[in-house]
Amino acid sequence: MADHLEASVTLPSDPASVSAARTYAVGTLTEWGMPSDTQVSDTVRLIVSELAANVVQHTLGLSPTFTVHLALDRDERLFIGVTDSHPGLPKRLPAAVQQDNGRGLVIIRSLTAECGGRFRVRPTRGGGKTVSVELPWSGPPAPVPARGRGNRRRA
């Protein structure tokens, strides 16, 4: 594989874009050799989904679009970033039992820590921010050897 791969897509800050962001991220990983039915793909799918949903829900129309950026460096580190143009930084909300939302960043931080990765929020030059996760890249899983269809004896 190449030393460095990158892909990005810019989407409107609309609820339908959350699904499009997930599909784009998993499709990109598949192009890079990671099957869509792996734990890594599921983790990336959830991270991108939560980051995109946060943009749609919390930028309050002040970021008409957001960009999902993926980069793979030397088959070692996967970078996932979502950039928007809203100036506000994410805030941790108290996790009240009755609360239906506000757990997205907690989920992202937990998944990132579980994978041995790093979570960051950085302001952009344009006044927005990029919320990003770096994860170790384990590469595609080894294929499972097919079992031979030898003759079976019935008792």
How is this structure best described in words?
Helix content is 31%, strand content 26%. The chain has 155 residues and is an alpha+beta fold. The chain has a 5-stranded antiparallel sheet with strand order 1-2-3-5-4, with helices on one face. A hairpin with a 5-residue loop joins strand 4 and strand 5 (129-136). The longest helix is centred in the N-terminal third of the chain and has 20 residues, at 39-58. The model is unreliable at 142-155 (pLDDT under 50).
> Rg from C-alpha positions?
18 Å
Structural class based on helices, strands and sheet pairing: alpha+beta
Proportion in helices: 25-40%
The residue ranges in which pLDDT falls below 50 over 5 or more consecutive positions are 142-155
Average pLDDT works out at 85
- Percentage of residues in DSSP E strands: 25-35%
Count, helices: 3
User: Would you report the number of β strands?
Assistant: 5
| Most strands sheet | 5 strands, antiparallel
Q: Helix-strand pattern, N to C? A: EHHEEHEE
> What characteristic shape results from the CA principal axes?
globular
Q: Spatial order of the strands in the main sheet?
A: 1-2-3-5-4
Short description:
With 155 residues, this protein is α+β, with helices and mostly antiparallel strands.
